[in-house]
Queue: 2 jobs
Job 1
Amino acid sequence: WCQYEVKGEQRIERLYQFKDFKTALAFTNAVGELAEAESHHPALLTEWGKVTVTWWTHTVGGLHMNDLIMAAKTEEIFKQFK
Amino acid sequence: WCQYEVKGEQRIERLYQFKDFKTALAFTNAVGELAEAESHHPALLTEWGKVTVTWWTHTVGGLHMNDLIMAAKTEEIFKQFK
């Protein structure tokens, strides 16, 4: 994960790689399901063979402990795709 | 749709808005299904209530007629989500 700032807000981001578009989209859906379950939503950039996941919290103007927990849960989901 | 250049490659992009994350993700999946069917893949940025769709063609270093056709088909899919 790398951390960077957008308009004064801290975000964390990681690029995940997959064998094709279909698998990348399946990962996007799995992370989307987690997001819905936790009511906390990332930005998910799906491309051929890769997904960029970005977590941050609007209401606190940047990162919150919950973003780090969501990042850890995203890692767990990724393990199922390896 | 707006057109812009990334590293010398022309791309076309449009932002679509939805009522929530779930509907945005359903749209991402519908465009992903089209992409798989046509073997031509966009970048799909899914966020809460919005999806940014970007089409371009790597092999010709920018836009190809097919990207414009895919953009038109994306519009057709969006109509089903309104």
Job 2
Amino acid sequence: MKTTTFKIEGMNCDACANTIKKLVEKEPGVRVAEVSFDEGSARVLYDPQSIEEERLVDTIQKPGFRVVARD
Amino acid sequence: MKTTTFKIEGMNCDACANTIKKLVEKEPGVRVAEVSFDEGSARVLYDPQSIEEERLVDTIQKPGFRVVARD
């Protein structure tokens, strides 16, 4: 399992954060996503054998949010 | 082309509405989606030959919003 933290722009409220959490947690291979509106970040625990980091970025960005950094 | 209006619960702000708009407009067969946070609704213009109404409901609900009525 691997954890990646994504810095995200475009969240406007806690509901936005929850939207991202639910979208990411529906992806296969993702165990948990902690998304914080206050910090503008998502910390995702996932199996890198099942899903690539790039796919996580796509999932976050699909509704219009922007991933501006990751580590 | 067909227009369906969905009543949606769970939107918290304009960014939530924009999130739904972008997700729905990425679906094949959808021409335009007008989503209003104030009204709690989405009006979607789409080609019913390309996408079923049920699929639109799934798309709206995937991040956790709830479709409570449609016409």
